[in-house]
Write a structure and sequence with these properties.
heterodimer, A: mainly alpha, MetI-like fold, 19 helices, about 70% helix, globular, B: MetI-like fold, two-stranded antiparallel sheet, two-stranded antiparallel ribbon, disordered N terminus
Chain lengths: ~300, ~350
C-alpha cells in the first residue's frame, strides 16, 4: 500500500509546489469582483427583508440588523390587504396563477412540438421536405416587435382581460422547439422505432413509448427553457390580465405591484421579492446542470 | 438526406429496400414517379405512396405548430399592417376600419401633427428621442457580450473553484426582470438615500436626474444579462479543439496570439448568435426600463425628459391610450413596424447561416 502511494504521489506535490502565478491572482481578483457585484444587491435585499421596521428607519442603511426577524416573511401572507378581497394572499394566488398559466402551454406545447418534430423526422408524408423548409424560413422571421400591437388582435377576439392570450398560443408548440427536438431525434436510430412498430404500436404508441423516453433530456431542456421564461415573464401578463383584479395576476405581475400592496412596509416588500425568487433558485440549486444545459441549448445555437 | 443522388443513380429498387425508407422516398420523388414507402410492418413491402390516413395524420401533426404560428403570429401582424393605414375601432358591434391618411406615420414624424390630436402633444420629437434612448440602452448588449466573453475566458482557465463561480454567475439569468429591477431600485433609492450612495459616499439622486436615469437601467442590465452569454461562451470555449492550441503552441504562439487566432475563430458562431440575439433584445427593451423608471400617473412618459422611454415603451403607451385618439394604434403599429424593419435584416442573416448549418 505504502509503495503504491509513493508511486502515485510524486505527481501531486509537484503540482502543489507550483508557485501561484501572478496571472492566477488576476483571474481570482476579477472573478471575485464580479461575484461581489452580483452579490451586493442580493445581500441588501436579503438584509432589508429581515430588518425590523424600527431599525430600518435609522439614518443610514442597516447592513447588519441587531435584531433580525423573519416576521416580514409571515406578514407577506398575513397582512396582505387583498386577503379579504380575494380570499388568499396575493402572492399565493399569483403563484398558483403563474403555475397554470405557465405549465399548461409549456407542457402541452412541448408534446405538440414533439409530435410535430416526430412527423418531420420519422414519419412520412408527401411534401415533407418542402413543408419543413417553409416552416423553418417562416419561423425565422423575428416577430418580437409585434408583441404589444398583437393586443389589437386579441382585443378583436375578445380575449383581453383574461389569461387566454397567455395560454392558447403556447398550446400549439413552437417551431424553434420543433427544430431542436428534430435534431435530437436524428440521433435515435430508425430501427428502434421500426421494432416498436412491428410490436404493433401505432403512430402515437411509437412516440410515447419509444421516442419520447429516448429524447427525454431534450424535452427536459426545452421544458426548463419554457418554464423559466414563463415564470419570469412580465410584459404579457401586464398587457392582458385585468389590472384591477388581483385574483388573476401572475406572480411577477403581483410582485411588480408590490409597492401598491405594501405601501408602508419596506421589509415586507423585500421579503415578497425574495419569496418570488425562491422557487426558481431552489430548483436551480437542485439541478444546475439541467438548468444550464436547458437554457444554453434551448435557444437553438446559430 | 445527403447522398440520395448516389442511391438514385446506382441502386436498383430491390437493393434500396434494405436502405432507409427515407432515401428511397426522396429518390423516387425526384424522378417524378409514384413514391414508395418502406415503413410498413412487413418491411420491404412496396406500396404506392398516396394520401393514407397515416400520412394525413403525420401532415396534421407536422403542421400543428405552423397553424399556431399563422393564427397567433401572422394574424396579429396582418391586423397591425391594416392598423398602419386605417383607424381601427373595436366595440360590441364588431370591428371597423377607415382609411386614416397615414396619420400613424404623421404622428411620429410630423412636427405639428401631434398637437392637433386628442393627445395635444408633439410626438415627433419624443419619437426621435426615444429612438436615441433605445439605441443607447440597446448598445449595453455589446458591453454585456464583452463581459460575458471575459468571464467565460476567466472560467475556462479551470482555476480552483471555477465550477462554483460558474454556478453563481448563472443565477441572474433565472431572476425575473421584476425582481432585478426591484433590487436595483432598492440600491438606487433604498434608505436613507440610496444604498449605492451609502457605499460610495455620494449623494446622486439616480432616479430623479435625467443624466443618471439611463445608467440605472444600464447597470441593472449589466447585472443580469451577461449570465446567459457566459454559459454560452463557456460551452463554446470547451468545444474549441485542444489540438489546435497545441499546434499553435508548437508554432510559438503566445497566449494572446492563441486567443486571437484559435479561440476567437472557434467561438465566432456563438459570438454572432449572441450578438444578433442581443441586438434584438436591446431594441425591444421594455421590462427593465418600465420597471426601474415607471410612469406615475400624469407624469412624463418614460421618466424625466423621457430618458427611459424605449420604443417598446412608446408602443405600450400608445396601446394603453388607444381610447384617447384612434391615431394611437396607428402610431403604435408604425413604431412596431419600424422596430421590425430594424431587426429583420439581422435575422435574415442569421437565418441564412442557420439554414446552411441545418443542411450541412
Amino acid at each position: 500500500m505504502i509503495e503504491t502511494t509513493v508511486a502515485v504521489t510524486p505527481d501531486r506535490p509537484v503540482k502543489k509546489r507550483k508557485k501561484i502565478k501572478p496571472s492566477r491572482i488576476v483571474v481570482y481578483t476579477l472573478l471575485g469582483l464580479w461575484t461581489l457585484f452580483l452579490f451586493v444587491p442580493v445581500y441588501t435585499l436579503l438584509v432589508s427583508s429581515i430588518t425590523p421596521a424600527e431599525e430600518a428607519s435609522a439614518s443610514t442603511f442597516t447592513w447588519f440588523p441587531k435584531h433580525p426577524t423573519l416576521q416580514p416573511y409571515a406578514d407577506v401572507f398575513i397582512h396582505d390587504p387583498n386577503l379579504s378581497k380575494i380570499g388568499m394572499p396575493t402572492l399565493v394566488y399569483g403563484f398558483l396563477n403563474t403555475m397554470w398559466i405557465t405549465l399548461l402551454p409549456v407542457v402541452v406545447g412541448l408534446i405538440v412540438s414533439g409530435l410535430s418534430a416526430y412527423a418531420y423526422s420519422k414519419l412520412d408524408f408527401p411534401g415533407r421536405r418542402i413543408i419543413f423548409k417553409i416552416a423553418f424560413a417562416v419561423s425565422m422571421v423575428p416577430l418580437g416587435a409585434f408583441s404589444i400591437i398583437s393586443y389589437l388582435f386579441y382585443d378583436m377576439l375578445g380575449w383581453t382581460n383574461s389569461a387566454l392570450p397567455l395560454v392558447i398560443p403556447g398550446l400549439f408548440g413552437s417551431m424553434n422547439t420543433v427544430f431542436f427536438l428534430k435534431m435530437y431525434y436524428e440521433t435515435v436510430p430508425n430501427e428502434i422505432l421500426e421494432a416498436a412498430r412491428i410490436d404493433g404500436k401505432g403512430t402515437f404508441g411509437v412516440f410515447f413509448s419509444m421516442l419520447l423516453p429516448l429524447a427525454i433530456p431534450a424535452f427536459i431542456a426545452q421544458f426548463i427553457f419554457g418554464f423559466v421564461g414563463g415564470y419570469n415573464s412580465y410584459m404579457s401578463p401586464l398587457l392582458y390580465l385585468p389590472q384591477d383584479d388581483a385574483s388573476t395576476w401572475t406572480l411577477q405581475l403581483a410582485l411588480s405591484k408590490i409597492v401598491e400592496i405594501f405601501p408602508n412596509d419596506v421589509n415586507i416588500r423585500c421579503a415578497s421579492m425574495v419569496l418570488g425568487m425562491v422557487p426558481l433558485v431552489v430548483l436551480y440549486c437542485f439541478c444546475q446542470k439541467l438548468f444550464i444545459e436547458g437554457i444554453s441549448v434551448g435557444g437553438v445555437k446559430g | 438526406m445527403r447522398g440520395f443522388e448516389d442511391v438514385d443513380a446506382v441502386a436498383p429498387a430491390e437493393n434500396v429496400l434494405s436502405e432507409e425508407g427515407e432515401l428511397v422516398a426522396t429518390a423516387t420523388e425526384r424522378n417524378g414517379e409514384t413514391i414508395v414507402t418502406l415503413r410498413r410492418s412487413g418491411g420491404g413491402k412496396l406500396k404506392k405512396r398516396k394520401w393514407t390516413s397515416q400520412s394525413f395524420l403525420a401532415l396534421f401533426l407536422a403542421l400543428l405548430p405552423m397553424i399556431g404560428f399563422f393564427l397567433f403570429s401572422t394574424a396579429p401582424l396582418v391586423l397591425s399592417l391594416i392598423a398602419l393605414f386605417c383607424d381601427v375601432s373595436i366595440d360590441w358591434q364588431g370591428i371597423s376600419f377607415s382609411w386614416n391618411d397615414f396619420n400613424g406615420f404623421r404622428m411620429i414624424f410630423e412636427k405639428d401633427f401631434g398637437a392637433g390630436t386628442q393627445f395635444a402633444q408633439d410626438f415627433s420629437s419624443i419619437f426621435w428621442k426615444s429612438l436615441g434612448i433605445t439605441l443607447w440602452l440597446g448598445s449595453t448588449q455589446f458591453i454585456t457580450l464583452l463581459i460575458a466573453l471575459g468571464l467565460s475566458v476567466l472560467l475556462a482557465t479551470k482555476c480552483r473553484g471555477s465550477k462554483t463561480f460558474q454556478v453563481l454567475f448563472f443565477i441572474p439569468h433565472i431572476c425575473s426582470s421584476v425582481s432585478v429591477a426591484f433590487m436595483w431600485s432598492w440600491m438606487f433609492l433604498g434608505q436613507p438615500e440610496g444604498i449605492l450612495n451609502t457605499i460610495f459616499g455620494t449623494s446622486i439622486r439616480w432616479l430623479n436626474n435625467p443624466d443618471t436615469i439611463p445608467w440605472t437601467i444600464i447597470i441593472a442590465i449589466i447585472w443580469q444579462a451577461p449570465a446567459y452569454g457566459t454559459v454560452m461562451f463557456k460551452a463554446a470555449l470547451a468545444n474549441v479543439e485542444q489540438s489546435q492550441y497545441e499546434a499553435a503552441g508548437l508554432d510559438g504562439a503566445n497566449s494572446w496570439q492563441k486567443f486571437w487566432y484559435v479561440t476567437l475563430p472557434g467561438i465566432m458562431p456563438t459570438i454572432f448568435y449572441l450578438l444578433i440575439a442581443g441586438i434584438s433584445a436591446g431594441l425591444l427593451l421594455y421590462d427593465m426600463a418600465a420597471l426601474i423608471v415607471p410612469d406615475p400617473w400624469g407624469s412624463t412618459i418614460g421618466g424625466q425628459d423621457h430618458m427611459a422611454l424605449t420604443l417598446m415603451r412608446l408602443v405600450f403607451y400608445f396601446n394603453e391610450h388607444r381610447g384617447t385618439d384612434p391615431v394611437a394604434l396607428s402610431a403604435a403599429s408604425a413604431i412596431s413596424w419600424i422596430l421590425f424593419l430594424l431587426i429583420a435584416p439581422v435575422s435574415v442573416w442569421l437565418y441564412s447561416r442557420r439554414e446552411k448549418k441545418m443542411e450541412g
